[in-house]
Design a protein that fits this description.
This protein is an alpha+beta fold. The chain has a single domain (about 5-275), classed as 4-Layer Sandwich (Double-stranded beta-helix), CATH 3.60.130. It has seven helices and 17 strands. The chain has helices at about 30-40, 55-60, 130-135, 140-145, 155-165, 170-180, 215-230, and strands at about 5-10, 15-20, 45, 65-70, 75, 80-85, 110-120, 125-130, 150-155, 185, 190, 195-200, 205-210, 235, 245-250, 250-255, 265-275. Helix 5 (about 155-165) runs antiparallel to helix 6. The radius of gyration is 20 Å and the shape is globular. The model is unreliable at about 285-290 (pLDDT under 50). It binds succinic acid. Succinic acid binds next to strand 7, strand 16 and strand 17. The site of succinic acid has 10 residues, from strand 7, strand 16 and strand 17.
Length: about 290
């Protein structure tokens, strides 16, 4: 597909592209429309050397949709929609596990916009994978079976252990049980913009496949999680300060390496709210009954 207002350099066949020739603080509508189109085509976009202010970060992310406040990460003072992801010797990394953002919500994010504020001297790369390429590489018989299934996504599976290390941990767990109960999503979803099918289970939040016995669910999820990790589905970014990454959160998963510990790494992330994920099976009308 042609782009007239941005220079696009794909990184791999499955996922990722660098976008050059844009200033994210000063975007016109035509350029933004091309960025959105490129996002749906390449799933994660990298913009190097963007000196975004928090207000500029909000203005760019807000073009994708409504910005949401995260349940766990520290909100930026004055801009609570920006989550400050800061890790150092006292606060070890916690995003070193494959996931799509907030799939434990009934309406998970459609995109996330991440701005690098402080990068350690070595390490701290982020990896993304295409869950579209992963689905498409499965055999047709397994694809068909997966389309009939739903899975439970559980906030506490990811954050319960983290809360328990804190003084108010039991109270936070109790509150999360009430306010953020597990939700169910189809195992395969149809992307609402591209119509492509996405393998929509991730090891951080997906707890079980509802229709299967526990041992079957565990075995199938482990197989799918291993399949998702094929290097052919991945791209990796070695960050520099002021780089910005935007990902299609419905079609990808990501993993922030924790290898920089105990050094400092600080990122600003905005999560853009999405819709309820839709499965691929349409309700088929009941067959008409013969009368008489
Ligand atoms: C995340 O959104 O999980 C964090 C990604 C990162 O810090 O690189």
């Amino acid at each position: 597909m042609n782009y007239e207002h941005i220079a696009l350099k794909p990184r791999t066949a499955a996922i990722g592209a660098d976008v050059e020739g844009v200033d994210l603080e000063h975007l016109d509508d035509i350029t933004f429309a091309e960025i959105r189109r490129a996002l749906h085509e390449h799933l994660v976009l990298f913009f190097r050397g963007q000196r975004l202010t928090p207000a500029g970060h909000m203005a760019f992310a807000g073009r994708f949709g409504r910005m949401e406040i995260h349940e766990v990460f520290r909100p930026h003072e004055g801009h609570p929609e920006i989550s400050v992801l800061e890790h150092d010797a006292e606060h070890p990394p916690i995003s070193d596990s494959w996931h799509s953002d907030v799939t434990y919500r009934p309406e998970p994010a459609l995109a996330s916009v991440l701005h690098a504020r402080h990068i350690p001297p070595i390490g701290g790369d982020t990896l993304w994978l295409s869950a579209v390429a992963a689905y498409e590489a499965l055999s047709p018989a397994l694809q068909e079976f997966l389309c009939t299934l739903t899975a439970e996504h559980d906030f506490l599976q990811a954050y319960g252990g983290y809360f328990l290390k804190q003084a108010d941990g039991p109270a936070r767990i109790e509150r999360a049980r009430r306010e953020t109960p597990p939700v169910t999503h189809p195992v395969v979803i149809e992307h609402p913009v591209t119509g492509r099918r996405v393998l929509y289970v991730n090891p951080t939040f997906t707890a079980r496949i509802v229709e299967l016995a526990p041992a079957e669910s565990r075995a199938l999820l482990d197989m799918l999680f291993a399949h998702l990790l094929k290097p052919e589905f991945q791209v990796r970014l070695q960050w520099q300060v002021d780089d910005v990454a935007v990902w299609d959160n419905r079609a990808t998963q990501h993993y922030a390496t924790g290898d920089y510990y105990p050094a400092l790494r600080r990122m600003h992330r905005i999560t853009v709210g999405g819709d309820r994920p839709r499965g691929v099976l349409r309700e088929t009308p009941a067959p008409a009954r013969a009368v008489g």
